[in-house]
């Protein structure tokens, strides 16, 4: 059993327990369930420069603890101050050290910005959870879902008023799982088997993603030159977590990248 299979198996156990503790009708009564969501896809479509989706992540299976001495409300507020287009907050406990509490603190601190519930969605119940804690976008990972599951979960997410980010790692996942109820396609540059990253993955898949879908790139994004290169290939958003979180001040790290992007864009407007 590989790490992804372990995570999915554990997630199914978590969902089974959660259903016994709180029903869908209970989730629907939560104050944030009726909140009007904010569209990330619309913001990215309208953008005329690379947009950063900044992630709050304490640890990962491949890196272990990345930053254990941080507060979600402070880090995410700093991200927003430095121009983040959206926030991604991990809610997986066992493998990423996240929680609903992290998400809720970030949501309270940043009520008006699009927020992605970053987790491994395997059951419709989790969509109701996401809506109840104030998520605007949910993540569907093609590698751990069947094409039918992607369709049904994405359609339900739309019914609940949330947008859908479909994460793919290769052409096979893209072509099998992409459907009309997906809003954003995220290409993860990390190989799930080796955990190595290569932005060539995003470049290779860029022309295979129809223009009707917003494209974002994920993992292995560390510098302005890389981001600007991918932007030229049609990527509008860039999801970055570890690069920021491994520093003492993640918000300041985003600010430095934003400055580098501005300078790079001004001095290299035609660089591919």
Could you explain the architecture of this structure?
The protein is an alpha/beta fold. It has a single domain (3-33, 40-267), classed as Aldolase class I (TIM Barrel, Alpha-Beta Barrel), CATH 3.20.20. Helices cover 43% and strands 16% of the residues. It contains twelve helices and ten strands. It has helices spanning 3-21, 24-28, 40-46, 72-81, 100-109, 124-132, 147-159, 171-177, 200-206, 224-232, 242-245, 250-267; strands at 51-56, 59-60, 64-65, 86-90, 115-118, 137-141, 163-168, 184-188, 214-218, 237-240. It has an eight-stranded parallel β-barrel, surrounded by seven helices. Strands 2-3 form a two-stranded antiparallel sheet. The longest helix is centred in the N-terminal third of the chain and has 19 residues, at 3-21. The model has no long low-confidence stretch (mean pLDDT 94). Keywords: Amino-acid biosynthesis, Aromatic amino acid biosynthesis, Decarboxylase, Lyase, Tryptophan biosynthesis. Its EC number is 4.1.1.48. Residues 4-254 form the Indole-3-glycerol phosphate synthase domain.
Strand-residue proportion = 15-25%
Reading side by side through the largest sheet, how are the strands ordered?
A: 1-4-5-6-7-8-9-10
The number of helices is 12
Uncertain regions: pLDDT < 50 for 5+ in a row?
none
Report the count of strand segments: 10
Order of SSEs: HHHEEEHEHEHEHEHEHEHEHH
Instruction: Give the count of structural domains.
Output: 1
Radius of gyration: 17 Å
| Helical coverage, percent range | 40-55%
The CATH homology group name:
Aldolase class I
Principal-axis shape: globular
Terminal-residue CA separation: 40 Å
Give the name of the CATH architecture.
Answer: Alpha-Beta Barrel
Strand count, sense and barrel status of the largest sheet are:
8 strands, parallel, barrel
Which CATH first-tier class would you pick?
Alpha Beta
Give the CATH topology: TIM Barrel
Mean pLDDT rating: 94
Oligomer: single chain
GO molecular function, one term: indole-3-glycerol-phosphate synthase activity
Pathway: Amino-acid biosynthesis; L-tryptophan biosynthesis; L-tryptophan from chorismate: step 4/5
Keywords: Amino-acid biosynthesis, Aromatic amino acid biosynthesis, Decarboxylase, Lyase, Tryptophan biosynthesis
Family: Belongs to the TrpC family.
């Amino acid at each position: 059993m590989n790490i992804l299979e372990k995570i999915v198996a554990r997630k199914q156990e978590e969902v089974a327990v959660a259903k016994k503790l709180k029903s869908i009708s209970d989730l629907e009564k939560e104050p944030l369930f009726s909140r009007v969501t904010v569209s990330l896809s619309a913001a990215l479509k309208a953008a005329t420069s690379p947009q950063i989706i900044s992630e709050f992540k304490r640890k990962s299976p491949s890196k272990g603890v990345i930053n254990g001495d941080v507060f979600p409300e402070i880090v995410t507020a700093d991200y927003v101050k430095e121009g983040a287009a959206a926030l991604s907050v991990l809610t997986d406990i066992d493998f990423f050290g996240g929680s609903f509490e992290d998400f809720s603190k970030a949501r309270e601190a940043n009520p008006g910005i699009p927020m992605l519930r970053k987790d491994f969605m395997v059951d419709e119940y989790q969509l109701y959870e996401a809506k109840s804690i104030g998520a605007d976008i949910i993540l569907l990972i093609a590698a751990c879902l069947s094409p039918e599951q992607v369709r049904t979960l994405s359609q339900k997410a739309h019914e609940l008023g949330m947008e859908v980010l479909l994460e793919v790692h290769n052409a096979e996942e893209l072509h099998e799982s992409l459907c009309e109820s997906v809003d954003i396609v995220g290409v993860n540059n990390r190989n799930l088997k080796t955990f190595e990253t290569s932005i060539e993955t995003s470049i290779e898949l860029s022309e295979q993603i129809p223009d009707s879908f917003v494209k974002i790139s994920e993992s292995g994004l560390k510098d302005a030159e890389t981001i600007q290169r991918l932007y030229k290939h049609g990527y509008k958003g860039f999801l970055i977590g570890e690069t920021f979180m491994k520093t003492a001040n993640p918000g300041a790290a985003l600010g430095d990248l934003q400055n580098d992007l501005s300078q790079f864009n001004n001095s290299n407007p035609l660089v591919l």
